[in-house]
């Protein structure tokens, strides 16, 4: 791995932390390496840099297989690359959920690969290393909708609604989590209550909590869009959190991350993102819900908010969505007409119904997930 150095305007030397061993072909290609370094210096998020690096490395691998020069590729060769993306064996093979053939990358992955290629070619055009961009964009068409609609891009966009469990499946998920350790149960409750993404829940800090008002401040540096927001959590989650804080004090008295590892290899260290993913994957395998992911809890929470007839803007603010179009998908999942929604915080109390249902109804009476054991 190369380590590149740079100096800022104050003369402080900073190290470039791009993990080049993940993108060896980018590292070996001068123009590609320079372009990725520029994106890093522009303070793009680490995950964005990683996605750019992996996508560009994939294209350079394609060029190597077909003896194509990246600086001189044509639109025909770009089309061949798209065909390769659509027909290559999928890394998940027979376990992939959306393609029965086990071939081809998902539409969103293909969109990402082509977008990165277009940005890289824009850079080559800017540096006068090529005359035009072979990827192209959708074109402005006057008179078609607000601000003018665009012709479709190189690859059509497919927008599928997210999967959410039905009520019986949700109860199965909660029942399975009853067997998990206290930390994992707290993570489940907070991830659902706050509609938190994986990184947001794993990186929760003790200083993020206002226990008096049962609120959590989500820091902008851990969010997807760099927007801070405040979310709430239920009384049920509050009781669980109080129990876990006692356990955390046994692990460490230091301030910092809320969730700590209890493994021997990384005892009392910050929890990794993969740890939470593996917990949910284990539950998914255990109850036979292969589509269950860490993001499912966020989808389910926002759908429950829509079913509680919260206003669209309230849901968007709570979720941290930059566009209302993203929030609208939960309106469709909820099956509740938009015109019947309330601009009232009173209906917000209905949102925690699923967890309260588990405490009060059959799961509790059957001895599983009982309040005395779980909450």
Description:
It is a single chain. With 375 residues, the chain is mostly helical. The protein has 2 domains: 5-126, no CATH class; 168-374, hpI Integrase, Chain A. Helices cover 47% and strands 4% of the residues. It is built from 16 helices and 5 strands. The protein has helices at 24-28, 30-41, 46-65, 75-87, 107-126, 167-177, 182-193, 198-202, 235-251, 273-287, 296-307, 312-319, 324-334, 353-360, 362-365, 371-374, and strands at 5-7, 13-15, 209-210, 215-218, 229-232. A 3-stranded antiparallel beta sheet has the order 3-4-5. A two-stranded antiparallel ribbon has the order 1-2. Strand 3 and strand 4 form a beta hairpin. The protein is globular. Mean pLDDT is 81; it is low at 1-15, 94-101, 139-150, 344-351 and 357-375.
Strand and helix map with partners:
Layout: E1 5-7, E2 13-15, H1 24-28, H2 30-41, H3 46-65, H4 75-87, H5 107-126, H6 167-177, H7 182-193, H8 198-202, E3 209-210, E4 215-218, E5 229-232, H9 235-251, H10 273-287, H11 296-307, H12 312-319, H13 324-334, H14 353-360, H15 362-365, H16 371-374
Antiparallel strand pairs: 1-2, 3-4, 4-5
